[in-house]
Specification:
Helix content is 26%, strand content 24%. By secondary structure, the chain is an alpha/beta fold. The protein has helices at 22-33, 47-50, 69-82, 100-107, 203-216, 254-272; strands spanning 6-10, 38-42, 56-59, 86-87, 130-135, 145-148, 160-164, 168-177, 180-187, 197-198, 222-230, 235-241. β8 (168-177) and β9 form a beta hairpin.
Length: 278
């Protein structure tokens, strides 16, 4: 009987995140994937040196790559040169490639928080008392700040994005494996954004999220569509996470968690071109 496919599961078990424990999620996921794959866990800084011994590299809660940008770029280059199967595939057009997609989606008229990166485009933003300034290479709210309209002219443009600060009712996230919706979670209290509860999306909600999944054109992988509900009731995209989205699996019930694991397992098998075990 042929051996099971081998997977290098990339995670930073020591990464500290506000309000959530990334390590618990990856301990759970890797333990369940072990039913179908030979699994080894490694730190993101070790992935390039170890990946040749495995059939695929699954990147999970590896922390913001800006903390090790040089090593991450080298990993991507080596994986491309060697034909390494990386899951999510490295062809993602969203957070995996930086924040340029927020500018592209704004220009294309998608329902996204309006975003600009040049002072001459500030007039395209709606007027508000405060604006959000974030680095193009940011993650996990690192480097994010709030400024007044009067302060916009004094910013150093080039590596930053500017958005209006949205007065929203709540944030909601939609989780996908490949192009299949799995579950949704929302934070009812805007001041406690990591206190998540299950959310039952409407067909309109799913249509909103699906637009961004279709735009990204990833055939395989896990994606999270983060949005905010405005006071007027509309949804606007906050972020399309396609690199290492935290899944908040501890916030869903057991059947939903089981379904997600099954979907991810099937997706990896498809990605490897191997039929799942019966």
């Amino acid at each position: 009987m042929p051996g099971r496919p081998s997977v290098l599961f990339v995670t930073d078990l020591a990464y500290q995140a506000r309000g959530r424990r990334y390590c618990d999620e990856d301990i759970f996921l890797s333990s369940r994937l072990r039913n179908d794959f030979e699994i080894a866990l490694c730190h993101p800084l070790d992935a390039a040196a170890l990946m040749d011994a495995f059939d695929a590299v699954v990147v999970r809660n590896s922390g913001p790559v800006l903390h090790y940008q040089k090593e991450y770029d080298a990993f991507r280059d080596q994986a491309a040169a060697r034909g390494t199967r990386v899951y999510n595939p490295l062809s993602g057009r969203a957070d995996m490639a930086g924040k340029q997609y927020l500018l592209d989606l704004t220009a294309a008229g998608y329902p996204v928080i309006p975003t600009v990166d040049r002072p001459q485009d500030l007039g395209a933003l709606p007027g508000t008392d405060q604006y959000v300034v974030k680095p193009k290479a940011g993650a996990d709210s690192i480097g994010l700040s709030f400024v007044s309209r009067d302060q916009l002219d004094g910013l150093h443009y080039g590596d930053i994005l500017v958005q209006p600060r949205i007065d929203f009712r709540y944030e909601v996230s939609f989780y996908y494996v490949d192009d299949a919706f799995q579950y949704a979670l929302h934070a009812p209290d805007p001041d406690r954004r990591w206190v998540l509860e299950p959310y039952q999306p409407t067909e309109a909600d799913l249509g909103f999220a699906r637009r961004f999944i279709d735009w990204n054109t990833l055939d395989h992988g896990i994606q999270r569509v983060d949005a905010c509900r405005t006071q007027e009731g509309d949804l606007l995209l906050v972020e399309l996470e396609d690199l290492n989205p935290y899944l908040s699996l501890d916030r869903v019930d057991d059947p939903t968690r089981d379904t997600f694991v099954a979907s991810m397992t099937t997706s990896i098998h498809r990605f490897l071109g191997v039929s799942p075990r019966t």
